[in-house]
Design a protein that fits this description.
The protein has helices at residues 9-42, 49-52, 112-115, 169-173, 200-208, 230-235, 254-260, 300-308, 324-327, 335-351, 373-378, 434-437, 446-466, 486-489, 511-516, 545-549, 555-565, 578-590; strands at residues 159-161, 181-183, 186-188, 220-224, 241-246, 265-267, 282-288, 309-318, 355-360, 363-367, 476-479, 497-503, 520-524, 537-543, 566-577, 593-598, 608-615. Helix content is 27%, strand content 16%. The strands form three sheets. It has a seven-stranded mixed β-sheet, sandwiched between helices. The chain is an alpha/beta fold. It is globular. It has 18 helices and 17 strands.
Length: 627
């Protein structure tokens, strides 16, 4: 008879459960021990500790071009092994080679050799004509062999090193007019001009006797056909900032001289396309023997000046044909010809509703109306030019000029300023611009404007900590994506000027508001070269630029252009996400730049980081072709 089991089923199940649990624990423990042993054996060939930590330097050197900092936000960061992103770089080289010295003053979109292939009518061949993709250079533009750091402002207004711009042509061609003189190893700029032989300072004083220049109402100006920009240079001490422009033409390097002096300037011309500035931008426009045919093409060039001139703004004309009774023999033109030209200019001015303020000695001054109420009535008498009907007045990037008057915003009474009255300078720099106050810029509000000002207080405090921006190191600054001009506004106490660029494909056209703050700037597409000479900017600010363009063009193109316009030992402040900055740094390393990635000013948890990069000093070599 089999032995009877005297335990209950419940007790049996508990014993079985304990055995299974013990088996499971022993099995897992065995696997863990085996994994540990295998891992230890596999890692016997790993690098030593110093190699393991070589990617993160806890004692990183001081930031390029900046003072040392104990702040964690200023520490050098390295993300190269942890982040990746698909971006159009295609560097393909460990280091970009230098270009030949023949490209030392290369201006890709205003290249004289390329320009000669285009229509000479209306000077179209001197407009922007950029190289095709297959023509783009993949090398670094060299500085002249004896290049020196430019003089600091304000000394730079009067002096520049000859070796930096080795051209004596203007000193010979314009010797009588006192544009520029050669004194040993440097150029001197006496401040003269074709129509101001007593100097730009005295000339501006003459203007000030006719219209008020020093009460803060006039802040932004445009100088058409600027020469070496002495008019703009001497306006600066009167708190007036001028956008000076001239073509790259027979007067070799005139805009380059202006920028070397630390004076705002661009390569540009009045030809067939609109100037790259918004409507109602400038308080004053100026032409001193600028050779622009104001009376031709149905007055189209004067109509374009009207577009960019603010309501109530002034247009100043000196040189032919003004005061022709005195100068006609020296100008080698007949009295009849000069009288006819002046009469036709005044007729155009009348038809676009300007009034002549005064003509005295060598100066003739006109004023644009503050609104178009009376102009609409005048159009019943003067049918042409008509007021534009379906026109975006701010659209100015590769847009043809039009022979119609840009309409001003509507007003309720004849005493109101169209578009809103501006505060006097410097108050206007931090006052909500009328374009924003009126809601003219979609989704940009007064609250956003004030918030942006607050953001820039923090940013500038941080920049002072990580760059020598407050130490007089920089003079010419360009902001590649200016937004509301907050960077420029944060710098008004420093001896600098800022070229505020609003990308032509930007989601918000804010350039008009920037001008209403009393700053200058331009539209531009950074897939193309900027309208300037090499080595013309000391500091470049690039916030969010590559996020805009990474799907439109190779970022190498943009970075090589930044290298072209940046002076040796100049600096760049990039602001992007980590992935983009890592790729940017890989390219700047190949361009011989020194750079560090740092935390955002708000701390390490902000995904946006800052890359501070400095262009190293190097120069080209003149090759000996004698053999």
């Amino acid at each position: 008879m089999p032995k009877e089991y005297n335990g209950s089923p419940k007790h049996y199940n508990q014993l079985e459960s304990k055995r299974n649990r013990l088996t499971w624990i022993l099995g897992v423990s065995g696997l863990c021990i085996l994994s540990y042993v295998m891992g230890a054996w596999k890692n016997t060939g790993t690098p030593n500790q110093s190699e393991t930590y070589s990617k993160v330097d806890c004692n990183a050197g001081t930031n390029t071009g900046s003072s040392s900092s104990s702040s964690s936000s200023s520490s050098t960061l390295d993300f190269s092994s942890h982040h990746s992103i698909e971006i159009n770089t295609n560097t393909g080289v460990a280091e970009f080679p230098p270009c030949d010295m023949v490209y030392s003053e290369y201006t890709p979109c205003q290249d004289p050799a390329r320009g000669r292939k285009f229509d000479r009518n209306m000077m179209k061949y001197r407009e922007r004509h950029c190289p095709a993709k297959e023509e783009l250079l993949s090398c670094l533009i060299p500085a002249p062999p004896k290049y020196k750091t430019p003089f600091k402002w304000p000394q730079s207004r009067d002096y520049a090193w000859y070796d930096n711009i080795p051209h004596k042509e203007l000193s010979i061609e314009k010797a009588i007019q006192n544009w520029i003189q050669v004194e040993g190893d440097r150029f001197r700029f006496p401040g003269g001009g074709t129509m101001f032989p007593r100097g730009a300072d005295a000339y501006i004083d003459d203007i000030n006797e006719l219209i008020p220049l020093t009460n803060g109402n006039i802040r932004t100006a445009i100088d058409t056909g600027c020469g070496v920009a002495s008019w703009g240079a001497y306006l600066l001490k009167r708190d007036i900032v001028a956008m000076s422009f001239a073509p790259r033409d027979t007067h070799e390097a005139q805009v380059q001289f202006a920028l070397e002096r630390g004076v705002p300037a661009m390569i540009g011309i009045m030809a067939s396309q609109r100037l790259p500035y918004p409507a109602r931008a400038f308080d004053m426009a100026h032409c001193s023997r600028c050779l622009i045919p104001w009376n031709q093409y149905d007055g189209m060039y004067l109509i374009e000046v009207d577009r960019v001139l603010r309501p109530g703004g002034y247009w100043i004309l000196s040189g032919p044909p003004i005061r022709w009774k005195k100068y006609w023999r020296g100008w080698e033109r007949t009295q009849e010809d000069l009288k006819q030209e002046q009469d036709s200019i005044e007729e155009v001015a009348k038809r676009i509703c300007w009034k002549k303020v005064i003509e005295k000695d060598d100066l003739s001054i006109y004023q644009k109306p503050i609104n178009h109420l009376e102009c609409a009535q005048l159009k019943q008498t003067y049918k042409t030019p008509h007021i534009c009907q379906s026109d975006n007045p701010d659209m100015a990037w590769y847009q043809n000029m039009e022979k119609c008057i840009t309409p001003l915003p509507e007003v309720t009474s004849s005493s109101k300023v169209a578009g809103g009255e501006l505060e006097k300078w410097p108050k206007r720099a931090f006052t909500v611009p009328p374009r924003i106050a009126s809601g003219s810029i979609p989704s940009i509000t007064a609250e956003k404007f004030q918030k942006d000002n607050d953001i820039w207080k923090d940013r500038m405090a941080h920049y002072k900590h990580i760059t020598p921006i407050a130490q007089g190191r920089y003079r010419n600054i360009i902001d590649m994506n200016a937004y509301l001009g907050g960077f420029a506004a944060s710098l008004i106490k420093f001896p600098v000027w800022v070229m505020n660029v609003v990308p032509s494909n930007s989601a918000h056209d804010t350039l008009g508001a920037i001008y209403e703050r009393g700053f200058i700037g331009t539209y531009h597409d950074w897939c193309e070269a900027f309208s300037t000479y090499p080595r013309t900017y000391d500091l470049i600010h690039a916030a969010g630029v590559f996020g805009i363009y990474q799907d439109r063009c190779n970022i190498n193109v943009i970075l090589l252009e930044m290298d072209r316009i940046l002076r040796p030992e100049g600096a760049v402040i990039f602001r992007e996400g980590v992935e983009l900055l890592t790729k940017i740094k890989s390219v700047t390393d190949a361009m011989k730049w020194k750079s560090n990635i740092m935390d955002h000013e708000s701390g390490p948890f902000n995904p946006e980081k800052i890359l501070i990069a400095t262009k190293t000093y190097w120069t080209g070599e003149v090759k000996d072709h004698s053999n």
